[in-house]
Amino acid sequence: MEMLLPPHVGDELSVVDMHTGGEPLRIIRSGYPEVKGDSVLSKRRYVREHLDHLRRVLMYEPRGHYDMYGALVVNSEMPEADLGVLFMHNEGYSTMCGHAVIALGRYAVDYKLVKEPQSPETQVNIHCPCGLVKAFVEYSDGKTGGVRFLSVPAFVFATDVTVTLERFGDVTVDISYGGAFYAFVDAQRFGLNVTKSRTRDLADAATAVTNAVKSQVKLHHPTSDDLAFLYGTILTDGKDDYSSDPTANICVFAEAQVDRSPTGSGVTARVALQYHKGLIQLNQTRTFESGATGSQFTGKAVEETTYGDFRAVVVEVAGRAFYTGVSCFVQEPDDELTQGFLLK
């Protein structure tokens, strides 16, 4: 049945909605103006400076919500890339998103962004702002399934960094990179449990850490200043020694946005941190559980490498994504809330 659009002005915004481990992904299919720039990173700067009103329209209420997440498919300057992507959230634009890569892998095959799917896996090269990420999509009898991806080089920036929080005093954190920088700290430091405590209490503690690290620690990235910022804080259950049992964490990123999934780039950074500390070996798979929903990803370090002056690893992360619907959003000229709003 053809979708009948109500009265509106301007182009309609067509999207496909998915989730990975409970974390939403709104993939924008059409309605954006041309995104200018000669690289994915320059396109990220362009949308931030010139098209940010459309991020607010799609991420904010009444069309989205405080924790909505989005992806805009763009052209890549890399010949080997099947697609480029810009990630967006309640604060702006991130540099890497593992849950989105897992969803985009399925989407790229199902929506024929990859010309000839292969069984048992189809490779999809996704150019993220942090670099090229290779996804491998299960494919059989014309149907897509689980997805695994190989990260950009992941490395530990610093361990045992002490920062001072106004409410909690001195807190020791580790900082690791998995396409984005995260601070890691055991939730027990705040008297919290990542699977049982109130989400608001976990978010408040993690946000306090993020704000302290941002103000007290100077980050740098081997290749681009655009990537040298702290994306968020991941509170863990402290179970970093290798075990076949799942280890839980919860990620709070951007403007206190809570990830419902185990966080793909966070798992990448956490695996790099565990490998750096000698707690896991190459090709030793761990299961990571979301403290918010109980959903799970697996992660393992598969290769040693270097990234600038940092010793690094390539990490494989695997999970499942599912479709939830398609939508076509419009704007009316006399709607005073058409640009969106957030309840904080």
UniProtKB/TrEMBL annotation:
InterPro entries: Pro_racemase_fam (IPR008794). Its EC number is 4.2.1.77. Keywords: Lyase. GO terms for molecular function: trans-L-3-hydroxyproline dehydratase activity. Transmembrane segments: none annotated. It catalyses: trans-3-hydroxy-L-proline = 1-pyrroline-2-carboxylate + H2O. It comes from the Eukaryota. Coiled coil: none annotated. It is an enzyme of class 4 (lyase). Belongs to the proline racemase family. Homodimer. This is trans-L-3-hydroxyproline dehydratase.
